[in-house]
Amino acid sequence: MSFRSLWVLLGIPLVAAGLAAEVPIITGIGLIITVAIALSRLWSRRLFNRLNLKIPITNSRIYQDEETHILIELENRKFLPLPWLRIVIQLSNELEVTDENIRTIAGDLHQTVVLRGSIGWYEKKSWKIPITSKHRGNFRIDSPVIHTSDLFGLFPRKQQFNVAANLIVYPKIIELTDLGFPADRPLGESKGRNQLFEDPLRIAGLRDYEPGDSLRRIDWKATARKGEIQSKVYEPSAAQHLYVFMNIDTLSHSWEGFLPEHLERTISVAASISVWATTVKFAVGLLANGSLLGSDRPLRLPPSRSKVQILRILESLAAIQPLTMGTLAGSIRREVSRL
């Protein structure tokens, strides 16, 4: 039996013994202990009432080796303080806590971060956890647990909070000159308008239907007049397009596994080219024979000049898995009919 349990069981017997022996001091001590235990239990039951916790991230999208902060924001919206508390939160081992004063406990897949403190009545407090990562990925930070107790530590309690935050770590971006591309024209000479991509708003003429033409290409009025299916011919797009094809195969056969360093280098090169193309106003797309977690289809992002396109590409490259979804050549063949 613990020392704490002895205190809980001591109050009423002392009162009874003091009354029986007619010793007021023993009765008084017993009453004090009994009242303290009753108040402590009542305190303990209300510790988590009107207690709010949030875990925002100062910058939820970073590149490898950049630093950001996880904020633990706690608000006590009641008159009852928490005299001591311990906040426990799990992080992936691929994230590194850069503050040596913050206690971390290493595990197989996760590390446990332990924060200590207290919070008074109607008070807000925050803790800051500086983190960085040498690994790309989509990291979920959720379900922190708070351990606390009453003033005397007689009735400890804990509660898990269903709050979460996501941290996306983009692949490392490398200057194209460092990858061996020429500085003035990294992708070689440009040859005028892009013949591969077409502008659907500019119709150059009509032609007979060909297998693989989409329904949007068919001119139904011309088809009705001629009696044969007619497809629209679009003028070449005036915008420069860049479609990045990425092969995630690092070995001859997928069942052999993969080489992590080679895969990360491939992903980093694809990200670097995409970022460069965005800065020079290209319409950028990405096609890969890998997929995102939970998806059964190869990664496909058709070229676009949208302002959020580069974010889509970087987020996809951050989360792409090493499992191949067929060959890249097969993905390209399927894509040709859509262009």
UniProtKB/TrEMBL annotation:
Domain DUF58: 206-327
Signal sequence bounds: none
Transmembrane intervals: 26-44
InterPro entries xrefs: DUF58 (IPR002881)
Pfam families recorded: DUF58 (PF01882)
UniProt entry keywords in alphabetical sequence: Membrane, Transmembrane, Transmembrane helix
Name of the featured protein: DUF58 domain-containing protein
